[in-house]
Write a structure and sequence with these properties.
Layout: H1 3-27, H2 32-45, H3 48-51, H4 53-72, H5 78-93, H6 95-99, H7 105-128, H8 133-162
């Protein structure tokens, strides 16, 4: 396998992994009410309240809030539907670098900027919305862990670019 082919394969594997995670994180924003009920049940079954009461109190509070919103103000959950949709749309954008990494490196750089933006968002909006700091750290970890594969992809794209354009296929001779 040539260096070019190996780099392209590596770029695509990293991009597919990133997109799968992006799609999963988006898709899980649709059924929040049911997920929180399920999470609370699982945590209780695992005796989490005895070992991590703060976590259990937070999960219970969030679940109760979502139950109230779902019962009395379900239109508020429409905002999380849009959040989920945004994840899916952003995931589609990564088809560009999958297809032509050098030409579409800007999508990868955009993703890196978005990952960096998670940190100030969590630090500013978390306290404003009454989110515990330890939960904001979990939110910030998405930006930190998200930027890693994108950084790897960007470096591989730069190496691919340094190899130069692939040799053009010979033109058909018409006679």
């Amino acid at each position: 396998m040539s260096d070019r082919a190996a780099l392209l394969k590596g770029i695509r594997v990293w991009l597919v992994s990133f997109v799968v995670c992006l799609v999963l994180s988006g898709a899980t924003a649709f059924p929040l009410v049911h997920e929180l009920r399920w999470t609370e049940d699982v945590l209780r079954a695992l005796s989490v309240p005895e070992h991590l009461p703060g976590l259990m109190d937070w999960i219970t509070r969030v679940r109760q809030g979502l139950d109230t919103v779902d019962a009395e103000y379900p239109f508020v959950l429409y905002g999380t539907d849009w959040l989920a949709f945004a994840h899916l749309v952003i995931a589609v954008a990564f088809y560009g670098p999958y297809r032509d990494p050098v030409r579409n490196i800007w999508v990868v750089e955009f993703g890196m900027i978005a990952c960096a933006g998670i940190i100030p968002l969590a630090l500013v909006c978390g306290p404003v919305r009454g989110i515990p700091f330890w939960w904001s750290l979990i939110d910030m970890s998405f930006g930190i862990f998200g930027v890693v594969p994108l950084y790897v992809v960007r470096e591989k794209i730069k190496r691919l670019e340094a190899l130069g354009a692939p040799a053009a296929a010979p033109a058909a001779v018409s006679g």
